[in-house]
Structure formats: structure tokens, C-alpha cells
Design goal:
10 strands; 44% helix; five-stranded mixed sheet; 339 residues
Length: 339
């Protein structure tokens, strides 16, 4: 029997999870509302909130799983990438817990964890998991990548954004429209009643399998600026259509490279990971293409697609089985590659 404590603190969500023999028994997340007033995550405020949340969150995770600290076999924690101050809180707690209980520590790459969220198992829940190799579209506020997953711990990035990520494009464009933060879910909701073909925005032509979203953000900003000069009520009068058109553009950019990658690799097992994987328009587009191309699609449920410790725990579990542990002098890193 193996019990793993997972810790996630890469951005603005403090999370702890308990995994027993590959099954998630608890996954507690404390979100931070303080950033909404600033239109984005404020690193200093995020790290302070993590300090307040980390102990109560771990305590709740243990109690919900009906597991005592003495039963934990190893501590898995997000080492990076992410906000350095936030990561320091999670890393420091993991070290303290490991030292107190004389437990091994397991570092987890945040990007790999999003991918391995597709292997999360829950008690009494029938789940589907991709088989190797499979192709993953990893889309979040900080990353837009295409990855071939050869094994639990062997992944190959074949495409990535050269500037901004898809999630950042959603959030920055939402801010331009005065929708607040995080903007992606708001745009998704408003887009349900809008006309996606009403407006057209820039789609950068990047060679290969790489992405770019900076041009889209710029074209959207200039479009809104010019329209507001002619009609100060333009955003209010056209909000659903603006959201639907913007969302369609971002999804078209994502899907064009995903289809290209699937064709080049010949892989038909397709997984979607990261916070943007919860977007209903993207999910619809992926399933629609799956019917045409014969893909088998895998998308974690919402609670495991956003930042959470469940994905950290499952990643730590496979590293535990492989004997991949880390020393106590490990420090977090703000940036890192998938490897």
C-alpha cells in the first residue's frame, strides 16, 4: 500500500490531495479571490495567501481521506514552473512535513502533472485513460503546447507558443472588454448566445507546430479601440458576439495545429490538459474533429483540469514507483522545460 500527499502552489490556488495506491481519496483546493480586483494574479498577494491556506488545506485533505500523517509514505510537490514566491510556500511546507516524518520527497513538473491528470482514478468512479503513445494539447494561462506522451515519465514536446499562451489571450482580451479576471470562463459563458462569425480577428501564420497569440491580442485591442471611437457603447451592444468570435478564433488556432500534429504523428489517442481544456467551445471542436478523424478523446473533469494537487499526487505516485526521489536541498524554479 502506498499513500502520497500531493501539494500544489504554483500560482494562486493552494491545493492538497491524498492518493492511495493510485486512487485519489481527497483533493482540496483553496482559491484566492483577492486578485479579481487587479485583473490578474499579484505574486506577492498570492504567496501570502498560500501561507495562510497551506496548513488548513492539508489538514482538510487528510481528514477527508481519513488518513493520518503517520500513514503517508511520500510527499509530492510542484517544484515548477510557476510563481517563485508561491512555489516557495509549497516547497517549504513539503520539506517541513518530510523532515518531521522522515519521508522521501518527490518533485513534480507542473506541466507533466496536467498531462498525467488524465490518469486520475476516483473511488467508485468509472474512468477512461489514454494508452501510449498519445498526443496532448496542453493549454492554460501560461502554456500552449503539443506533446507526445510515450510513457508516464517520458514526454516529448513537438510544438509550443513562441510568445503568449491561449489562456493569457482569453484573459487579456476579457480585460479589454471589462469582464474582469479570470476572463476565460466569462467569455465562454457569454459566447453561448453570440454569433461566432460576426467578427474576424488575426490568426498568425506560424510555421511548423508552434503557436502564437500576441498578434491576436493586438488585433483585438486595436479593433475594440477603433470601434469605441465610433460608438462608445460598442462593447455593451455586441458583447456576446465579440466573445463568440474571439473564442472561435482562439479555438481555430489551437485546432489547426492539433490536427496537423495528429496527422504528422499518426496518433489518434488525443488528450486535452490545462485550465483552457474546460472551455466548452474547445471541447466541442475536439469532439467534432474526433468524429471526422477517428480520434479517441480524453479530457479530465473540471476539478482536475484546473490547478490541483490531485494531478501532483498521481504524478508523484508514478515517480514513487520508479524510485525517483529528490534531496532536501531542492529549490523551486519559475521556468523550466517539459523535461
Amino acid at each position: 500500500m502506498t499513500i502520497i500527499l500531493g501539494i500544489e502552489s504554483s500560482c494562486d490556488d493552494t491545493s492538497a490531495a491524498i492518493l492511495k495506491d493510485g486512487v485519489i481519496l481527497s483533493n482540496i483546493i483553496a482559491s484566492q479571490k483577492v486578485h479579481e480586483a487587479y485583473g490578474g494574479v499579484v505574486p506577492e498577494l498570492a504567496s501570502r495567501a498560500h501561507q495562510q491556506n497551506i496548513i488548513p488545506v492539508v489538514d482538510q485533505a487528510l481528514k477527508k481521506a481519513n488518513v493520518s500523517p503517520e500513514e503517508i509514505d511520500a510527499v509530492a510537490f510542484t517544484r515548477g514552473p510557476g510563481l517563485l514566491g508561491s512555489l516557495l510556500v509549497g516547497t517549504s511546507f513539503a520539506k517541513g512535513f518530510a523532515i518531521a516524518r522522515q519521508l522521501p520527497m518527490i518533485e513534480v513538473n507542473h506541466l507533466q502533472a496536467h498531462i498525467l491528470a488524465n490518469f486520475i482514478k476516483e473511488p467508485g468512479v468509472e474512468s477512461r485513460h489514454p494508452s501510449f503513445p498519445f498526443l496532448t494539447l496542453l493549454v492554460s494561462g501560461g502554456n500552449s503546447q503539443l506533446i507526445v506522451v510515450h510513457d508516464y515519465l517520458k514526454m516529448e514536446m513537438i510544438g509550443q507558443t513562441i510568445d503568449d499562451a491561449a489562456g493569457e489571450a482569453f484573459d487579456k482580451c476579457a480585460k479589454v472588454m471589462g469582464l474582469g479576471y479570470p476572463g476565460g470562463p466569462v467569455i465562454d459563458k457569454l459566447a453561448q448566445t453570440g454569433n461566432p462569425d460576426r467578427f474576424s480577428f488575426n490568426k498568425p501564420q506560424i510555421p511548423g507546430l508552434d503557436y502564437s497569440f500576441s498578434g491576436l491580442k493586438t488585433s483585438f485591442l486595436y479593433f475594440i479601440r477603433d470601434e469605441l471611437k465610433k460608438n462608445p457603447e460598442f462593447i455593451t451592444q455586441n458583447l456576446p458576439d465579440l466573445c463568440a468570435s474571439l473564442q472561435k478564433t482562439i479555438i481555430d488556432i489551437l485546432m489547426s495545429k492539433l490536427k496537423k500534429a495528429a496527422k504528422q504523428t499518426g496518433i489518434k489517442q488525443i488528450a486535452i490538459g490545462g485550465g483552457v481544456s474546460a472551455n466548452s467551445g474547445l471541447q466541442h471542436a475536439v469532439h467534432q474533429e474526433a468524429e471526422k478523424a477517428g480520434w479517441e478523446v480524453f479530457i479530465p473533469r473540471l476539478g482536475f483540469s484546473l490547478d490541483n494537487a490531485g494531478m501532483v499526487a498521481v504524478s508523484g505516485y508514478y515517480k514513487y514507483l520508479a524510485g525517483q526521489f529528490i534531496q532536501l536541498d531542492a529549490v523551486p524554479f519559475a521556468r523550466t522545460s517539459l523535461d
